[in-house]
Amino acid sequence: MRTGNATLYDVAAAAGVSPKTVSRVINGAAGVSEATREQVQAAIDELNYRPNFHARSLRVGRDEAIGVVLESLSDPFFATMASVIEEHALQRGHVVLASSVGGDPEREHKLVQSLLQRQVSGLIMVPVSGDQSYLRAAAGQTPVVFVDRPSRPDGLGATVLGNDFGAAQAATKHLLHSGHTEIALIGDRPDVYTTAERVRGYRSAMAESRVGVREDLVKTGISSAAEARSALDELLRSEHPPTAVLSSNARCSLGVVPALHARGRTDIAFVSFGDFPMADSLYPAVTVVDQDPAAVARTATEELFKQIDGSAATEAPLSLPLRLVPRGSGEIPLAAVSRM
């Protein structure tokens, strides 16, 4: 595979098309067949070609750009992150190219490759796939900061993490302290790093209390508010429903909280991992594990621009503290729960 400074003309020759066609494929223009696009993309990959959008942007006076790849812009945590990253990037004269990939590994790969081909100054990304080894080719060329979860394999860039295990452990112990032993957990896919750490913290706290975990109270693989609502319905219909619920992210909480209110079950203790709009205005106000997405975004952006300015990436994960914010819902004692 050629690893030198391949040109657009090299790609055109390798693909057997005109330079204009290569340019149309790179820019996503219409009028190119899918077969031709695949042919050109294969040549781009083979030659490790990187169109110099950076140089072109300087010629036309456009701002430089950083790429931001998030799991879901509809999630309050990631939406706040995107806003703060953009604010700080603009202060440095950079625009932000932000997109979400859901839980689709293939979309992650394609989106990141597209951003690298545009020669962005750097990347901030929340990895969703189980393998980011495709970024090895960009090592030493494009700074990358991973947020919320580490890369797989490790060592592909700096990482900004929260103490998900410790915070979930503390939240579970908080509910246990109020007398609850039948504590349900509703969360995302167990292969997601943050979910796995939070489930591990929950299980650790339950084991330490010698209560043990009722496996029928653990509902993971929940990817939307609607699915979280259904999971809660199933739990409440069970013969021995939970008296307390821990939600592993704000997206799940946006399904659980309305369901508790709609069913008149605000007597059930509840803690949300991650804050969300109006959570402190409800009755009872929602007790949360505050992840502070603004602090995460600031830390990631500062690390990225440090590298853009020429400094080496921080090797050890940048760990941010998470704190429990008691507001009412997480402090409901077992004695107050109705045995409906």
Number of structural domains: 3
> What spatial order of strands do you see in the largest sheet?
2-1-3-4-5-11
What is the CATH H-level superfamily of the largest domain? Response regulator
In angstroms, what separates the terminal alpha carbons? 67 Å
Number of helices: 11
Q: Quick one: CATH class of the largest domain?
A: Alpha Beta
Give a short account of the largest sheet. 6 strands, parallel
Tell me how many strands there are: 12
- Strand residue percentage: 15-25%
Describe the secondary-structure layout.
Blueprint: H1 8-15, H2 19-26, H3 34-47, H4 53-60, E1 64-70, H5 76-91, E2 94-100, H6 105-117, E3 123-125, E4 144-147, E5 158-162, H7 164-177, E6 183-186, H8 193-208, E7 218-219, H9 225-237, E8 244-247, H10 250-262, E9 269-273, E10 287-290, H11 293-308, E11 318-320, E12 323-325
Parallel strand pairs: 1-2, 1-3, 3-4, 4-5, 5-11, 6-7, 6-8, 8-9, 9-10
Antiparallel strand pairs: 10-12
